[in-house]
Specification:
There is one protein chain. Helix content is 27%, strand content 22%. It contains three helices and twelve strands; from the N terminus they run αβββαβββββββββα. Strands 1, 2, 3, 4, 9, 10, 11 and 12 form an eight-stranded antiparallel sheet that branches. By secondary structure, the protein is of the alpha+beta class.
């Protein structure tokens, strides 16, 4: 006898429960929506934009890369003068399932300019330089300079940390303005929530947030990455020569013995 099919209304609570669990898992481990609260990333991002943030790759050991737009928790002291707005019930629910950012958390969004081991600097009137290479930054807000409001450096970024700046340079309290704090203005990789990879709302601003080509320029990795390779090669040459000598000496003796015997 076939089982009687349950009515839609009886299954609805189960479907809603499953949907909420899936949404919570996605928010926790995969993707989360964040709202842009300020103008510090114009024109790339506008106030009120909703961006989707990839939270999955950090779970596999991925670290922030130069050029990425990342969301990160306040490292301490960056947002101390800003009090979060008190969310209503609907906002709390949507935040819980990941459809809205939490109004109670202090998060920021900036562009990664330099990563651990890099040397970054910017003199007044000049471009930002990473490991001595000038960046061509078409994403900077029209009319802004690269850093005239707060020149800096050269600064060596510690391992496991990043140097971040807003695209609206003259309206962004970024790494430059927090050099007196622990970390010297840099942000620990552990504070990074994830990479913002797309603008999801409003629909007329739907767009991908890629890495600008200037961060792919040849030599940007600097001597820091070349030096270990060069040192390794320099150390390997004597070892190879020493090994070749050891291998050839016994064979020479054997060949000499054979020749003697033939004579």
């Amino acid at each position: 006898m076939p089982r009687k099919q349950r009515s839609f209304w009886k299954e609805l609570p189960l479907l809603i429960g499953i949907a909420l669990i899936l949404a919570l898992l996605i928010k926790t481990f995969l993707v989360q929506a964040f709202s842009i609260p300020s103008d510090s990333m114009q024109d790339t991002l506008q106030r009120g934009d909703r961006v989707l943030v990839d939270k999955l790759t950090p779970w596999f050991g991925s670290t922030p890369e130069r050029g990425e737009v990342v969301v990160f928790h306040d490292p301490g002291g960056w947002l101390e003068d800003q009090k979060p707005a008190e969310p209503n019930v609907a906002q709390k629910f949507l935040s819980f399932i990941g459809l809205m950012p939490s109004a109670e958390e202090k998060d920021l969004i900036k562009r990664v300019i330099a990563t651990g081991g890099d040397t970054v600097e910017c003199k007044k009137g000049g471009p930002v330089k990473v490991n001595g290479h000038a960046l061509n930054e078409p994403y900077i807000f029209p009319g802004d300079s690269a850093c005239d409001d707060m020149p800096f450096g050269p600064i060596k970024v510690p391992k496991g940390r990043i140097w971040v700046m807003g695209d609206h340079r003259q309206n962004s309290l970024d790494s430059r303005y927090h050099q007196e704090l622990p970390g010297g203005g840099t942000v620990s990789d552990d504070k990074v929530v994830g990479r913002a990879f797309t603008i999801a709302w409003p629909l007329n601003r739907l767009d991908w947030l890629g890495i600008p080509g200037t961060f792919d320029q040849k030599g940007l990795n600097g001597m820091g990455s070349v030096a270990p390779v060069a040192a390794g090669l320099a150390g390997a040459v004597p070892l190879v020569l020493w090994r070749r000598r050891r291998l050839t000496r016994p064979s020479d003796a054997i060949e000499g013995t054979d020749l003697t015997r033939k004579g």
